[in-house]
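Bench log, entry 3. Co-assembly request; chain sequences pasted below exactly as received.
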Amino acid sequence: DAKTTQPTSMDCAEGRAANLPCNHSTISGNEYVYWYRQIHSQGPQYIIHGLKNNETNEMASLIITEDRKSSTLILPHATLRDTAVYYCIVRSTGGFKTIFGAGTRLFVKA
Amino acid sequence: EPEVTQTPSHQVTQMGQEVILRCVPISNHLYFYWYRQILGQKVEFLVSFYNNEISEKSEIFDDQFSVERPDGSNFTLKIRSTKLEDSAMYFCASSERLGNSPLHFGNGTRLTVT
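Structure output for the full assembly:
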């Protein structure tokens, strides 16, 4: 599975959009981009995933560049409860493993 | 919304003892996983399980570890002889299929080995 690169940490003001970038320049055609988050020591929580089209659900939007080498997770109106570690993961269609990196620690501030 | 449940939430055991961590995956899911997270470190893949056999495992998953799906609902992780370094959060996850199907995680079992 392709490797991803994320900033170590980011700040966001409450009520503003949080835009979390991810670089996955070695992604291949059958690999999906997944985003999870982990709040404190809880289990990772699935947020959203996509292959090449932009995706939106009730939690977030996922913007994938046309060349698929990077993506951005958008939390449209961040709240204090969105403070967490956010993981960008690339996973192939046949892969059993989902490998977590260090992620981005997002701090939402009042 | 269906969820993955894990028991117990916290397990304390003495070094050398056997422990069994239990998980009930989401009912229509076919793929099952165990991960662990040592305090302050990354979430690490241990093993995946499909069709009643291990499909992939990491270097961490040595002979001290085993997994089992004893019935149609439970999925267990056994550590035969615990070591101090096995102290960690252990997360169970399940997915409906591979690839285009997210993992759904439980809230973990905190294992403390003394």
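The mean pLDDT of chain A is 94. Chain A touches chain B at residues 30, 32, 34, 36, 38, 41-46, 49, 51, 87, 91-102 (CB under 8 Å).
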